[in-house]
Design goal:
Layout lengths: L5 H18 L19 E3 L7 E3 L8 E6 L4 H14 L6 E6 L3 H11 L5 E5 L3 H5 L7 E5 L5 E6 L4 H17 L1
Parallel strand pairs: 3-4, 4-5
Antiparallel strand pairs: 1-2, 3-6, 6-7
C-alpha cells in the first residue's frame, strides 16, 4: 500500500519550515540589486529654488547620502530629528529626495522641523525613486565618490544605524 496520505503532511511541514525561516528575517535587510552599481542618473528641480536643477553628477567626487523622504511619511518624521542632529556634524553631505510629495508641503515641513539637507530635490512623480528601487519611505543610500551605491538603509535612520553602519562606511569610503 502506498502512503499517498503522507503527501499533504509533507507539504504542510515544508510550509511551516518556510514560514519559520521567513519570520526570522529582518525586513530592514532586504538586499538591493543596486549595491555596488552606479546610482541612477537624475536631473530634478530643487525644492528651495524650483528654477534650479540638480543632477546626480553634482555630487561626483564626494561621498554622500541620498535620503528619500516625504512630508506625508510617518517614518520620515521619526528619523528627521536624527538627520537634523547628524547634519550638524558635517560628516557627509545629505541630499534629500522628496518622494511623491507636494513641493509646498515639503517646504513647509522643512521650515517647521529643520532642514538637514545640503539640497533637496522634488521627485513628484516618483520616477527617480523607482529607478533607485524605492518601495517605501524613508530609505537612504550611501553613494561613493565615483557615484556607486554602497549601502541602502530601509526604514528610519536611528542613532545606532548611524553609529554602527553609516558612519564607519562613510569614513572607509572617504579614506579610499
Amino acid at each position: 500500500m502506498k502512503a499517498w496520505y503522507l503527501i499533504p503532511l509533507a507539504v504542510f511541514i515544508a510550509m511551516l519550515v518556510f514560514l519559520g525561516v521567513g519570520l526570522k528575517l529582518d525586513p530592514h535587510e532586504v538586499p538591493s540589486p543596486l549595491i555596488d552599481k552606479p546610482a541612477p542618473v537624475f536631473r530634478l528641480q530643487t525644492l528651495d529654488t524650483p528654477s534650479r536643477l540638480m543632477t546626480s553628477e553634482d555630487m561626483r567626487g564626494q561621498v554622500w547620502l541620498l535620503n528619500v523622504w516625504a512630508s506625508w511619511c510617518g517614518g520620515c518624521r521619526e528619523e528627521h530629528p536624527v538627520l537634523v542632529e547628524f547634519a550638524k556634524t558635517r560628516a557627509v553631505p545629505i541630499v534629500g529626495l522628496d518622494y511623491k510629495d507636494q513641493p509646498d508641503d515639503a517646504r513647509r515641513w522643512l521650515d517647521n522641523l529643520g532642514n538637514p539637507y545640503v539640497t533637496s530635490v522634488s521627485d513628484a512623480d516618483g520616477r527617480t525613486g523607482i529607478e533607485f528601487g524605492v518601495y517605501g519611505v524613508p530609505e537612504t543610500f550611501v553613494i561613493d565618490k565615483a557615484g556607486i551605491i554602497r549601502h541602502k538603509q530601509i526604514g528610519p535612520i536611528t542613532p545606532e544605524v548611524l553609529r554602527d553602519t553609516i558612519l564607519p562606511l562613510v569614513k572607509k569610503l572617504n579614506a579610499a
